[in-house]
Amino acid sequence: RERLKELLGRGAAAVGATVVVAGWVRTLREAMKGATLFVELNDGSCLASIQVVCGSDSTEGFAAAKACGGAGASLRVEGAVVESPGKGQTIEILAKAITVLGCTRGGPGRTVGAQTYPLAKKYHTLEHLRTHAHLRPRSRVGSAVVRLRNALAFATHEFFQQRGFLYVHTPLITAADCEGAGEQFTVTTLLPPEHDKAPKLPTVDGRVDYSKDFFGRQASLTVSGQLNVETHAVSLADCYTFGPTFRAENSNTSRHLAEFWMIEPEVSFATLADDIALAEDYLKYCVAAALCRCADDLEFFEGSKNEGLRDRLKAIVETPFKRLEYTEAISVLQKEMKAGRAKFENTDVTWGIDLDSEHERYLTEKVYKGPVVLINYPKDIKAFYMKLNADGKTVAAMDILVPRIGEIIGGSQREDSLEVLEERAKSVGLNPEDIKWYGELRQYGSVPHAGFGLGFERLVMLCSGVENIRDVIPFPRTPGNCRF
Ligand code: 4AD
Ligand code: MG
After folding, report:
1. At what angle do helices 436-443 and 226-236 cross, to 10 degrees?
2. At 325, phi and psi to the nearest 5?
3. 173-219: pLDDT as tens digits
4. Taking every annotated instance into account, which residue ranges of this chain make up the domain Aminoacyl-transfer RNA synthetases class-II family profile (predicted)?
5. Can you tell me the mean pLDDT for 116-144?
């Protein structure tokens, strides 16, 4: 079997070859009073389909193909590649033999017929496709997203491997709440009945007694692999982790998921400036990889109500990112509000607030017209592990904001002083016992180190222009949604 990506890539050079292809029917059309079939077949390897022409006299299996039900059916085709007289395609296949692997069946009566195939029509809204997540990769947009995700994941490994980083596998079940935001999904599993017959975890003085739980303590799904990858960075210098993370934030927005993938590099002997440089290089590398390796898919996304997408992406690759102090950002936003240019839902823009996405987007879309690296945030709105600056008020944190999305990367230099770290942990109410091991990384050969986390789905949104995060992950998990 030849993949369509390769076959179509060969173009006119493939004319004369006998090939075998297999895939799913996008459309099936009868002509010549039913004596000819035109089938658009796609195998997911690329956006384009190939036209397969079948004749009642020339194609073995013609009758079965005619009765396959049309869109959605799966076929194996053997035939000769010929030049196509049709517009927008160089080659097509004259089918010598067709095998129907699976026809498209109807509903309860199961009469053959494409009319019940949920993706039979050519155009579906993203909302409709979401309700068919199990068939969504058959749609053009669904498959383009998967190919883009694949290219970006590959580019991620390529980027870090080329720079000598080690890929570290951090756990998904954890005891630590890295971000301290209390947004963890708890993992509660009772030991098998021979150990404990109680249907529920027992309570002591009204509080759950986790000692009877599987792990003998409260455990959660990780919100970030950072604390674990730090242990390796302070032993092996340049590391990264790339895996799923989970957040039980009850925010029904177009940029939040309960389960998302995160890339988290962590580097020893590095400062905030090094961290920012790495993040900028990495983001640019990924965007350039998408432009170059997913050219057809990006052209398709651009054509789906996303004018100028590729030019915007090229500008991201070619233009240095603006660096901006948090304090400066607040005063810029205040000035814009005062001048009547900026109208925000949240008008409380004062030093100390955590910026909302409307503020982040305003800075990137209206003021700087491109990505912005925001640095040195107030310590009270950031996690305990970030390095305290000399002013005692801000931390060496950085967020990278991009147009249409807002925050895509969050990172910082880490606190390397044991005393300051302990103080900060105490002030946010962390149990010292819980982070004892983390403190020990500062006790034995502490080094300046820094890292960041990039939300993979937000990167896919950036490169595709797709506006809702639910449409860039195969099986989105959001409040109330865990079907499929
Ligand atoms: O800013 P965050 O919370 O940073 C961390 O988790 C750090 N521990 C990372 C590090 O320094 N190693 O999250 C990092 C990024 C955000 O910038 C955003 O792109 C993405 O993760 N993100 C989400 N993406 C989708 N859905 C959510 N609910 C997200 N929360 C964060
Ligand atoms: Mg953040």
Report:
1. 20
2. -70, 140
3. 998 887 877 789 998 776 655 555 555 666 778 777 777 778 888 89
4. 147-474
5. 92
| 91 vs 50: CA distance, rounded Å | 8
Q: Which ligand is nearest to the CA of 455?
A: 1
Q: Tell me the whole-structure pTM to 2 decimals.
A: 0.95
DSSP string, 420-472: HHHHHHHHTT--TTTTHHHHHHHHTT---EEEEEEEHHHHHHHHH----GGGS
Atom of ligand 1 nearest to the CA of 247: 28
Which residues are within 5 Å of ligand 2 (an ion), measured at CB? Answer: 410
Angle at 247 between CA 245 and CA 251, to 5 degrees: 135
Determine the 3-state secondary structure of 267 from DSSP. strand
User: Which domains does the chain carry?
Assistant: 4-122 (2.40.50.140), 141-184+223-471 (3.30.930.10)
Output the pLDDT for position 275: 98
ipTM summary value: 0.99
Backbone angles phi, psi at 372, to 5 degrees: -130, 135
Task: Tell me, using a 6 A CB cutoff, whether residue 451 lines ligand 1.
Answer: yes
Question: How many CA atoms does the CB half-sphere of 239 hold within 13 Å?
Answer: 20
- The single-letter code of the amino acid at 479 is P
Q: Which residue out of 165, 224, 478 has the highest number of ligand 1 atoms within 8 Å of its CB and is therefore the one to mutate?
A: 224
